[in-house]
Design a protein that fits this description.
Elements: H1 13-37, H2 51-75, H3 97-100, H4 110-120, H5 124-129, H6 138-141, E1 145-146, E2 167-168, E3 212-223, H7 230-233, E4 236-247, E5 251-257, E6 262-269, E7 287-288, E8 290-296, E9 301-310, E10 315-325, E11 333-341, E12 344-352, E13 373-380, E14 385-388, E15 392-399, E16 405-411, E17 424-427, E18 430-436, E19 439-445, H8 447-451, H9 456-473, E20 481-487, E21 494-495, E22 500-504, H10 505-508, H11 516-532, E23 539-541, H12 548-565, H13 572-584, H14 605-609, H15 614-631, H16 633-647, E24 650-652, H17 654-666, H18 677-685, E25 691-696, E26 701-706, E27 726-732, E28 735-742, E29 746-748, E30 762-764, E31 773-776, H19 778-790, H20 797-812, H21 818-823, H22 834-844, H23 847-851, H24 858-883, H25 885-889, H26 892-907, H27 911-925, H28 935-941, H29 944-956, H30 960-970, H31 976-988, H32 996-1005, H33 1007-1028, H34 1033-1040, H35 1047-1058, H36 1063-1097
Parallel strand pairs: 1-2, 3-13, 19-20, 20-22, 23-24, 25-31
Antiparallel strand pairs: 3-4, 4-10, 5-9, 6-7, 6-10, 8-9, 11-12, 12-17, 13-16, 14-17, 15-16, 18-19, 21-22, 25-26, 26-29, 27-28, 27-30
The protein binds zinc ion (ZN).
Residues 1-2, 528, 532, 551, 554 line the site of zinc ion.
Length: 1100
């Protein structure tokens, strides 16, 4: 899934908009400051002798079975009553549609919520009478780990001995049928809850029992959407499912995942005959009577109680007629988009199943390891196209009871796949297409977008990316086609459904005069999702705890593939700047979060969704990259090829991956490792944080210790024993040395010892290959400082960049003196790489230092020190901008660091930077398409007339990005009364519905705005609280208290905010303000030290 909302890595709309407006903000800063300063995952439990062959046999068996089942089902009693649409028959208490889904977004975190969920259901009468968790629940919560899986799927544990946790491979309790469950005559379906059962019943357990495994889903969905009656027809769908299962152990209860589905009828057919009768005819299919069907809403199960016990080894078909809801708000399960295209109001229906929404669309074994094949049919209005994972095999017509005609589109049967990868779309779209290695690639989009060529770029890159991956992994893409589709509102950025990848339009379509970054976003997003067609779709993690096997690899390959397709787009420094540093900067040994987590039975979807964070995407990608660097490209690729060959169409745990790499390592002698792959890599994926490697160059002794942030100093005792096996790529005097390894807390490397000679130096962690930071003793740092002054190009750009990033991070967290980091900057007059400069400027030129800290003396010092060193790099890049700005715009390696540097250097008042800004600005003025880029400047320099104009544009705009640009631009006013009115509009009108908080945040971020927001809160606290909610309070405090550094200010703000708070909250407020003040005081000390150092070293 391209979902990175938690990590914030994928650029959100707001963030991208922010990037887009960065330059306009810069222009504003230039203008305003100019006037002031005239300056800006092996099969261990059940070892297959030959896993590949066993799986092949299994697949062949399933294919054979599927054929028989399909025939059997055709002959079976027809439960789908003609074309009659299922109706809402039993559940009159169903809440309105929008509230219907609310439980999906409830927040749960931590073990407390875990048991709360148990106690609140599945039965209403329990939740109302029980306030504490039953004691029998305790062992299940967090400690008992189950690796029970359907027997068709070999299992293995991701835990190793050091986890010291109880590992159980059995179900929690026997699933004995309670005596209260006597069959009741003639009762087939019931939604009433059964009587109280022991807590050990299978429906209380968050994982499906292993009694049955799915083989094949024959699914028909019928969304009632019609273009002539969108409003009336968009809210529900009906479904029909024939689900073939194999019985593994005798049971008279069937549990399936089901979320808010209403069942009209259910039948269990079977056991299915094995083979044909002697006369060649199919044997008749029996039927198992269903005593009762009931739902366990809290656990998202539907339970079928049968009159007979199913026999192990036999196959049965579960037949359901049911209906469900089309989600009107969240983009989950089947959801709707309403949009305008070709001057008409239109609607489409599509699906999002990951992680566990498939159960909201069809009753299913909705766990990633429960793979099956799918034959899908969509019934839809003839005007719409119907798309799914596989190609269309047939179309027919169906007449509804009201006489309306519908199209029935059927799709080919899928290979074995997980439920979360099924996909459906019913839409009034067009497509562009091409053929790649004989397979059709289509990009679907709104008709206007296709007509305007917006999908063309995605089409040019999608096919080649498939071919690259096939070649690289030596594994063919197994589906006959690939389709990519964009939606106006998707919420997930992108989703890798097999054969039908879905995107937010923003991540797929390139408009004319689009922001320069868009092309790169499309390339990396498309590459990421296509990489998932292998990492996730062909081979799937067994359980969500190993989701990094999907996301870490997709994130790594998004850049590797982008690089191969467009070599300019990625260099090592790009990976460091855009991936590694974002997670290195906050990953500490104190975190609980690790890349791969222990197997845990997530009860609530939010627990699973919370796993999709920067630790799986970014740290995951860093893990893959580190592995590839110490194995070398050839071994790395060989390991992956072996992995896909062995595990195609099945599921893995992390150990399966390590085993494949171990095999390729064992088969050669060139790369020698100090320990097994598992032993090396588990240390990185099972432990939080990372080490600091410190080299004493006088002795050659290297020590490792876990990294902590400065504020964690008092808490580190419990975790300081953490040890990693660290690969050290290093160079001595410019000659790259063999990889060194440190497996303990310290080790002496005589070869790293240095003499006093200035020619002797070492750099560790070349090209940021390893996920750690490097520290040196004083002499080591001094030698590097001198080396840079003498010959900066002696080490690579990435090494220089990392040197600064490590040095500043180590100094901010008290590992080295600030002055040591500053010493490195002396050579900068010779530095011509913009990414190195941007790292330095990010660390030194911080506007709050000047404005919020009343520390104006540092400004001229920074200006003098940095500007005279910036001349060389400025001359290079200002010329390039003047010659061909669009070439710069297309160079991803340069663009981001250039923006960072440009803004800060202009802020420091470099005259030519100001001049160049004016030139670019003038150019934009003559280019009507770029009008939005200058909006901020226009508002800042203008009056209410300009502001009102922007408001009128905002009101008419349907383009989300444009709307955010406009919202931001409106905050650029320098008139307090205009800003005050802006807040008033946000508070008391519907003009900015859903964006009110954003308005308060962006207004509060400017110097004038901070005071306006404060004044506004004094006068309007009650309505602000009502509209924005108390949870926004902490954000408001942070905005307003940004610059405080004295007790008097804390007191003033405590009084100010205290009046808005309850007593109990005042303590939290005081603590928040104190923390802010102390942080600012720390900053002030730092600024003072920087200022002193600058004074003393100004002319060096
Ligand atoms: Zn992904």
């Amino acid at each position: 899934m391209g979902v990175r909302s938690n990590s914030g890595f994928y650029l959100s709309r707001k963030l991208v908009t922010f990037m887009v407006i960065l330059l306009s903000a810069l222009l504003l800063t230039v203008a305003v400051l100019g006037s002031f300063y005239a300056r800006c995952g092996h099969t261990s439990p059940q070892q297959w002798e030959n896993p590949g062959a066993a799986r092949l046999v299994q697949q062949q068996q399933i294919q054979k079975e599927k054929h028989v089942v399909q025939n059997s089902v055709t002959r079976a009693p027809e439960t789908w009553t003609g074309t009659k649409r299922p109706i809402w028959s039993w559940d009159n208490s169903r809440p309105p549609t929008t509230r219907f889904w609310n439980h999906l977004s409830q927040s749960t975190s931590g073990p407390l919520d875990h048991w709360r969920l148990f106690t609140s259901g599945p039965w209403g009468h329990i939740s109302s009478s029980t306030s504490e968790p039953p004691s029998t629940l305790e062992p299940w919560d967090d400690l008992t780990l189950s690796t029970s899986e359907p027997q068709d799927y070999p299992t293995s544990s991701t835990l190793d001995s050091r986890d010291n946790l109880t590992l159980s491979t059995s179900e929690p309790q026997d699933h004995t049928t309670p005596s209260t469950l006597e069959p009741r005559d003639n009762l087939t379906l019931s939604t009433s809850q059964p009587q109280l059962y022991p807590i050990s019943e299978p429906w209380n357990y968050p994982r499906l029992p292993s009694d049955l495994v799915p083989l094949h889903y024959d699914l028909e969905l019928w969304p009632s959407l019609r273009p002539d009656r969108i409003e009336k027809s968009k809210e529900f769908f009906s479904g029909r499912l024939n689900l073939t299962v194999r019985c593994i152990s005798p049971t008279s209860r069937v549990l399936l995942h089901s979320l808010r589905l209403s069942y009209e009828s259910v039948k269990v057919l079977g056991p299915l005959p094995d083979g044909l009768r002697e006369d060649g005819e199919q044997r008749p299919v029996g039927q198992v009577a269903v005593n009762r069907l009931w739902e366990v809403q809290e656990m998202e199960y539907v339970v079928l109680e049968l009159m007979e016990t199913l026999e192990p080894g036999r196959r049965y078909v579960l037949q359901f007629n049911y209906s469900g809801l089309v989600n009107q708000e969240d983009k989950a399960g089947l959801f709707i988009n309403l949009y305008y295209d070709q001057k008409k109001y239109r609607a489409l229906i599509a699906s999002q199943m990951e992680p566990t929404y498939a159960r909201a669309v069809f009753p299913s074994f909705d766990e990633p390891a429960m793979k099956a094949t799918f034959s899908i049919t969509l019934v839809h209005h003839p005007v719409y196209a119907a798309i799914s994972n596989m190609p269309v095999i047939g179309k027919s017509e169906r007449e509804d009871t009201d006489g309306s005609k519908w199209t029935v589109t059927s799709f080919e049967t899928t290979p074995l796949m997980s439920t979360y990868l099924t996909a459906f779309a019913v839409c009034d779209y067009n497509f562009v297409n091409r053929t790649e290695r004989g397979k059709e690639v289509r990009i679907w989009a709104q008709k206007d977008a296709i007509a305007n060529g917006y999908a063309d770029y995605a089409l040019t890159i999608a096919g080649p990316i498939f071919s690259l991956l096939e070649d690289l992994l030596n594994s063919s893409y197994p589906l006959p086609k690939m389709e990519l589709i964009g939606f106006p509102m998707f919420d997930h950025q992108a989703m890798e459904n097999w054969g039908l990848i879905m995107f937010d339009d923003f991540m797929l379509l390139q408009k004319k005069n689009d922001y320069p970054e868009r092309k790169n976003i499309i390339l990396s997003t498309v590459a990421h999702e296509i990489a998932h067609q292998w990492f996730g779709n062909i081979v799937t993690m067994k359980w969500w705890n190993d989701i990094w096997l999907n996301e870490g690899f997709a994130s790594y390959f998004e850049l590797e593939l982008s690089k191969r397709l467009d070599p300019q787009i990625m260099k090592d420094q790009f990976f460091y700047d855009n991936y590694m540093t974002h997670v290195l900067s906050e990953d500490t040994a104190l975190h609980l979060r690790t890349v791969s987590t222990v197997v845990k039975n997530y009860t609530h979807i939010n627990e699973i969704k919370a796993l999709f964070d920067k630790y799986v995407y970014l740290k995951g990608a860093c893990m893959v990259r580190m592995l590839s660097k110490f194995l070398g490209e050839n071994l790395f690729i060989s390991g992956l090829q072996s992995y896909f060959k062995t595990f195609a169409f099945s599921n893995t745990v992390q150990d399966d991956l390590w085993n494949q790499f171990q095999m390729v390592v064992d088969n050669q002698s060139e790369v020698v490792l100090p320990a097994s792959i598992k032993s090396i890599m588990d240390g990185w994926t099972h432990q939080s944080g990372y080490p600091i490697i410190t080299l004493d160059v006088s002795t050659g002794k290297i020590t490792q210790e876990p990294f902590y942030l400065a504020e964690d100093t008092n808490q580190k005792t419990s975790t300081y024993n953490k040890i990693w096996t660290v690969p050290i790529h290093w160079t001595k005097n410019g000659i790259v040395q063999p990889v060194a390894w440190i497996e303990n807390s310290s080790k002496v490397f005589p070869e790293m010892q240095l003499s006093d000679s200035e020619h002797d130096w070492v750099v560790l962690n070349l090209n940021a290959s390893g996920y750690y930071r490097v520290n040196y003793d004083q002499l080591g740092w001094k030698k590097l400082s001198l080396l840079l002054q003498k010959d900066p190009k002696a080490i690579t750009t990435t090494d220089r960049l990392k040197l600064f990033d490590d040095a500043f991070m180590l100094s901010w967290n008290n590992y080295i003196e600030l002055e040591t980091a500053l010493e490195l900057t002396k050579y900068l007059a010779k530095e011509d790489d913009i990414s190195v400069w941007s790292t330095v400027l990010k660390n030194l030129v911080i506007k709050e230092f000047v404005f919020d800290m009343d520390n104006y003396d540092i400004y001229p010092l920074l200006k003098n020190y940095l500007l005279k060193r910036f001349t060389l790099v400025w001359n290079i890049y200002s010329s390039r901008i003047r010659e061909n700005i669009s070439a710069i715009n297309n160079d991803n390696t340069i663009l981001q660091p250039l923006k960072i540097a440009f803004e800060r250097i202009c802020w420091l008042g470099l005259e030519d930077c100001l001049q160049l800004s004016k030139e670019i600005f003038k150019e934009w003025m003559n280019h009507s398409d770029s009008i939005k880029d200058i909006m901020c400047f226009g508002v800042a320099m203008g009056s209410d007339k300009e502001w009102d104009f922007l408001l009128s544009v905002y009101e008419k705009s349907t383009d989300i990005e444009e709307r955010f640009s406009l919202l931001y631009a409106m905050s650029c006013s320098k008139e307090p009364w205009i800003l005050h009115r802006y807040l008033k509009y946000a508070l008391s009108t519907s003009l900015f519905t859903d964006d009110e908080k954003y308005v308060f945040q962006i207004v509060g971020l400017s110097e004038i705005g901070r005071f306006v927001v404060k004044d506004f809160l004094i006068k309007n606290w009650q309505p602000v609280k009502e509209r924005l909610g108390l949870d926004f309070f902490s954000t408001l405090v942070n905005i307003i208290a940004r610059g405080i550094s004295t007790d008097a200010e804390v007191q003033e703000l405590q009084q100010f905010f205290g009046n808005m708070q309850e007593d109990i909250e005042r303590t939290a407020l005081f603590n928040q303000l104190e923390r802010r003040k102390n942080k600012n005081l720390e900053k002030a000390k730092r600024i003072s030290r920087i200022a002193n150092w600058l004074k003393e070293n100004m002319n060096d």
